[in-house]
Design brief:
Length: about 280
């Protein structure tokens, strides 16, 4: 037999949507905005810690670890605030079991985190690129790991040498060498013997080096280019791991904060804040 209380509970649940999208969007936008602010602050601190002078500033390893930890801190802070906003601003649910209300609050926090993540991928990445690019113009072009750097190393002339190829089109020569590098270094395959010989001949003609010295330079520069490419690959892999960890921790923090915000909204929060204990309040 269906009791009056059960009928009242079903009626109350049917009148209220399970998801307060306005609260979810508010929490997501809040988390995304705080992420942008903290990212700007982290970029400024990072530029302050890095120095172009030898033995000055933080080392590369220390900088990468610190940046990874900061990513996690940013995710925790922004997701916690966003989840709390989503839980606190949702509509009041009446006639729900405690477990159902707990699940819905958790879902609100997770949805707020998801909205913030989508906003971050669509908007914040572009804003951060502009911000970092404005703070450090020309950084990417002057990076030692770029292909142009290694092409310059190959074509570096001996002091006072007058090469036979100095009157040739330098842009065409550099493009040709870059294509060979793209095949042998970027794609991860070894340079064919014919390409190595041809590169050595170009270097010899351009720089005035003997053929054996040119072949030695080609081998050294190719090894350096591969070392730089491998270091960039490892750095990208570690950054991806840090990002994954920060996102998972952010989702967890947002869910917990939404539970607290939702229970405070309903007046059922039992946690101790300072010296006060929040007890259930009558529904108004």
């Amino acid at each position: 037999m269906v009791t009056t209380a059960a009928i009242q509970t079903n009626t109350d649940e049917g009148k209220t949507s399970a998801v307060s999208w306005a609260a979810v969007l508010a929490g997501g936008v809040t988390a995304a905005a705080l992420t942008l602010v903290l990212s700007a602050f982290g970029a400024g601190m990072g530029f302050s810690a890095v120095s172009p002078w030898p033995n000055s500033g933080a080392s590369g390893t220390t900088f990468r670890i610190t940046a990874g930890i900061y990513l996690i801190v940013v995710a925790m802070l922004s997701s916690t605030l966003g989840g709390y906003m989503a839980g606190r601003l949702r509509t009041r649910w009446t006639g729900l079991h405690t477990e159902e209300a707990l699940f819905r609050d958790t879902a609100h926090g997770f949805l707020a985190w998801a909205v913030a993540s989508v906003l971050g991928a669509a908007v914040l990445a572009s804003a951060a690129t502009v911000m970092v690019g404005g703070a450090a113009p020309g950084t990417a072009q002057s990076a030692p790991g770029s292909a142009d750097y290694f092409v310059d190393m190959l074509l570096r002339s001996q002091p006072g040498a007058q090469s036979a190829a100095s009157s040739s089109d330098p842009a065409s020569l550099r493009r040709e060498i870059a294509d060979i590098f793209a095949r042998g270094v970027v794609q991860g395959s070894d340079l064919p013997a014919a390409d190595r010989t041809y590169l050595a001949q170009l270097v010899s003609a351009r720089t005035g080096l003997s053929q054996p010295d040119a072949e030695k330079r080609v081998s050294e520069v190719v090894d350096q280019a591969r070392t730089a490419a491998d270091a960039a690959r490892r750095g990208a892999a570690k950054l991806s791991m840090w990002l994954t960890a920060s996102m998972l921790i952010g989702a967890f923090a947002a869910s917990l904060a939404a539970i607290e915000g939702g229970q405070l909204r309903d007046g059922t929060w039992k946690g101790v804040i300072g010296a006060r204990r929040y007890l259930p309040q009558p529904v108004r």
